[in-house]
Amino acid sequence: MFAFEKSIKTFAGGVSFALSNRFGGVSKKPYESLNLGFNVGDEKHLVEQNLQIAFSAFCALQTKSKPAKSLAYLTQIHSTQGVSVSRAIGGIANLGEGDFLLTNRKDCALLVLVADCNPVLLYDKCNNALSLIHAGRAGVFGKICMRALESMREHFGTHARDVYAFVGVGIRECCYEVGSEISSYVAQIATDSKHIQETEAFLTTREDRTYLNLQAMLESEFRELGIGESEFMQGCSCCDKSFFSYRREGTTGRFGLFGRLL
Length: 262
Known about the structure:
Number of helices: 7
Number of strands: 15
Strand content: 25-35%
Structural class: alpha/beta
Strand order of the largest sheet: 1-2-15-7-3-5
Radius of gyration: 18 Å
Order of helices and strands: EEHEEEEEEEHHEEHHEEHEHE
Oligomer: single chain
C-alpha cells in the first residue's frame, strides 16, 4: 500500500505523508491494483474505491492525531498553476485543474498523482503550512516548486529557510532518455540560470544516448531557492515494477503522495 511514510513533529504542529505503490487496490489489468488516477482509462467506480481505501489507510497511520475529514486532489495538466485549500471541503474532492495544492488546514489531506513524474512535498516548519506538487518535466522546466513556494509565502508568510522538502520516487536518469531538442533546451536553462557547470549533472550520455536527471534539476532549484532541508527518496519508478510507470508501460495507473498537517 505505502512504499514510504514519515511524520515530522514541530513546535508549530507537524506533517505526515506517505507515498503509495501499486498494491492493495481493486483495479484490473493494466491498472492493477491501487490505481488512483481517473483519467487513464480505468473504471471510475474502481478508482473511487481505490481512493477511499488509500485515504483510509493513510488516516490510520496517524494514530495519535484526529483523522483528516477530507482529501483534496486536482486534475493535473502539467502546468505551474496551483490551488489553495482555505476552507472546509467534504469527502474526497477534485478541486479543479492545476499541479500543486497548498493549505494550512489540519482537517484536509492533500494528494498528487504520478507515474514517473516527481511527487514533491514542501512543509513550512514555522507556519505549519503544506504544499504538494506534481513536478514532471514541464513542471521542473517551469520552476513549479518556486511557484508553489511563492504561493506559500503569499498565503502563509513562508520563508524558504524554514521549509523541509521531500521528493518521492520518479523516473531517474537511468531510464529517462531524451532527444536532442530537450537536451538542447536543458543546456540553455543551465546557461540562462548561470548554472552552466551543472549541465553535466542534468544530462548524461551513454552509448550515444542522452538521459535527463530531473532529480539533479530539483536539487539545484532547492539550493537556488534557499530551501532549508531536503530529502530525496531513492529508486526509479521505471525500474521498480512496484510503481506505475508511463515510460515503461504506456497504459497504466497512477500512484500518489498523500500529505496532511498535524
